[in-house]
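hey
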């Protein structure tokens, strides 16, 4: 069997920046074991598998796999999939439905792709001493948790602190059993962004994710509360870097504008 397979850099206007995702176009579903094996072979933070949908509200079903596990929702792999379908077809809008029945829409704009993501809340989290130790930071009382994404959110004082983080990932992995990810964030004093972040996911096999769309479903809420703004510019400070323009439409809906670049196209051969 040959599968059309792409590598697409998401949340960037230039190749080799942002977050690379695999996208596999399927005519019929593969087994979970096959999809997991392909994701491990591609060894990207996420690989999306698209199958034409039989549901009226969606064009494709979409499933997301890291090299080690399936996850419920991935922002950058959704953007990568939208880029592929909007560029390779005459579609101006594409809609995906996830394995958990989350419907995600993307629309082509003149200089961006507009996506609709869910918007999630957060609550204060009791301190986790081992987590702060793994990050090399003093304990703080501004740790939060989003149950919907199993995501911890930690605000640090400034950009320099964020850039200098060198987590002990083995210790971070052992520091808590409630999280699948950790977003460390800070307010920006630069004109090009309202806030910065870095995202760590050793619990799902990804030490640091280059740009994490799903985390911004929580970070948008967090920084909207603090800055009293519903339109926000975000930049993720990984070594590759990537940007997101965020608009909170209502209490459940986040609009995300960004771009992506197709860098590789080929055929994956499986038995």
């Amino acid at each position: 069997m040959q599968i059309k397979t792409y590598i697409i850099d998401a949340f960037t206007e230039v190749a080799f920046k942002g977050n690379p995702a695999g996208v596999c176009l399927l005519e019929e579903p593969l087994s979970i074991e096959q999809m997991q094996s392909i994701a491990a072979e591609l060894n990207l933070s996420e690989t999306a598998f698209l199958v034409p949908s039989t549901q009226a509200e969606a064009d494709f079903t979409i499933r997301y796999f890291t090299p080690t596990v399936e996850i419920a929702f991935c922002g950058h792999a959704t953007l990568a999939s939208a880029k592929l379908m909007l560029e390779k077809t005459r579609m101006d809008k594409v809609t995906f439905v996830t394995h958990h029945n989350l419907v995600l829409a993307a629309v082509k704009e003149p200089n961006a792709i507009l996506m609709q993501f869910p918007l999630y809340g957060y609550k204060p989290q009791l301190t986790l001493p081992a987590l702060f130790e793994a990050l090399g930071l003093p304990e703080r009382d501004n740790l939060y948790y989003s149950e919907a994404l199993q995501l911890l959110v930690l605000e640090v004082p400034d950009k320099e602190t964020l850039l200098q983080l060198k987590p002990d990932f083995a210790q971070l992995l052992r520091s808590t059993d409630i999280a699948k990810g950790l977003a460390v964030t800070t307010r920006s004093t630069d004109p090009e962004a309202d806030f910065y972040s870095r995202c760590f996911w050793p619990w799902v096999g990804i030490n640091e994710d280059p740009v994490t769309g799903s985390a911004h479903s929580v970070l948008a809420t967090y920084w909207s509360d603090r800055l009293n703004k519903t339109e926000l510019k975000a930049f993720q400070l990984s070594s590759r870097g990537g940007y997101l323009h965020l608009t909170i439409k209502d209490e459940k809906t986040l609009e995300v504008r960004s771009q992506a670049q197709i860098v590789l196209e080929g055929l994956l051969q499986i038995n």
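The longest helix spans residues 75-88. The chain has two domains: 2-116+257-269, 123-251.
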